[in-house]
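Entry 12.
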Amino acid sequence: MTAGAQEVPADLLSAFESYERAIMANDLDALDAAFAPGPQTMRGDAAGLLVGHDAISAFRGVRGGVPPRTIERIEYRPLGEGVALLVSLSRYAGGGTGLQTQVWQRSEEGWLISAAHVTPRAQALDRSVWRSVGDPLFQGAWEGPLAGLSFAVKDLFAIKGYRIGAGNPTFLDSSRAETTTAPAVGDLLSGGASLRGIARTDEFAYSIAGDNVHYGTPPNGALAGALPGGSSSGPATAVATGQAAVGLATDTAGSVRVPASYQGLWGLRTTHNLVPRQGMLPLAQSFDTIGWLTRDGATLQRVADWCLSFGGSGSTESEFGASDSDLDLRFTVPEEILAAAEPETRAAFEALVARVKDHAEVTTVSIGRLDDYYDPFRVVQAAEAWRNNGDWLTAHPNATGPAVAERFRIAATITAEDESAARAALKPLRARLEDLVAGTVFLLPTVPGPAPMRTLRGERVDSVRQATLRMTAPAAVAGLPAISVPLLTVPSPLGRAPVGVCLISRAGTDIALVRLARRLNGLLKEKDAS
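Predicted 3D structure (tokens):
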């Protein structure tokens, strides 16, 4: 190791070397002790900024160890009495270099890190986000309404020459290369968008957290240290971090809407059966639908106008198509869904509704107990998920992570009588929702609250999952189009966090729903600016 222009004081160098030993050993206690306590301590990297000792500690608990490296060079600059800047160059045993920039402060306990920024070695791709990626992987049509856009495809869609992986390495190994490309992928290509790559998904899309025990958890592009939301986690992160303009995803129980909310994106779940699902690995056909994620409403409008109009896809035609017909600024808040939101989310949403009332009629309605939707939905979803995947899972025991394995274990116990009773229970609920949105648009928080921390485990994870599904299931039960718009910001343990506002309209009004969401967003921004 070489020193810079000024020699590092012995006690500071000793503290730095102790920190490096703890990094190499992944000694979490020692690493915690190396950082200054309190809410002002900071750590940043390409994934974002963590503020506060507790947030940094929580991140470190799920990061895992650092690859073997040596410190090749260190630069020291005193910043003041008991304050120093250290910049160190790391060389990794596996190749490549990285950079650490640290502010150290002397305390009664010795030298402690009060701020740090890490520049890791360059990587060809983040394997937690991408399975395969190119620049582009496939070129779209050179001309078209989507020209200039790139898109990430959830690893459930057929792409000619590639296998479907479904978020599981054993499934990927056992699959065959696809001979055709899914229509939903082809629509984007024919419109001029280019395929950036195949992005990760939660195993078999049977989750909404966004974690994956095999490939790692994609970062949350809006809130460092938080879960990205699933099961469309890979496409969502690719869009939120600027690696793609569009994410092609699926939504069975919220897998477009949840990651959109968690990462501050626009996300559209389309009307059930509107977009062809050929070439898409199913989870539960009664609820599976296709959707898209974007960073802004204008891009989502371009995609919806092309893919849902007659000219964009010969197999789909929205009720309103590309016509001038629009949905009225008339909203209804489902009381039970609002009541299920966390207090901070509910307060932020109610403040937003007060602003919306300056421009539109807003009423409330009871849709009934959320468990009346969630319980039979869960049974039908599980029955179909086991029919789709049970043979493979039986032939490949222990191939899935524990959380997904437990869901499939429960799914295997669903009887024909259970499924039949659940379908009968869903039928009147579907009709009720269809009637309620006939002349209005539902307005509600997309999810209960901000993205949970990545360190969430066990019963707490399942509690968040069930609370979220209770809010997202009604739209899936009725097969209605739903769009999540990043309109709320609420406090979280990791800082201010986005939460989406969801608009749900009658079947087939998908394009008009996007236009309405953009109109509402514009009106609120105008009010903020005035």
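Annotation: The mean pLDDT is 93. Residues 370-395 form the longest helix (26 residues).
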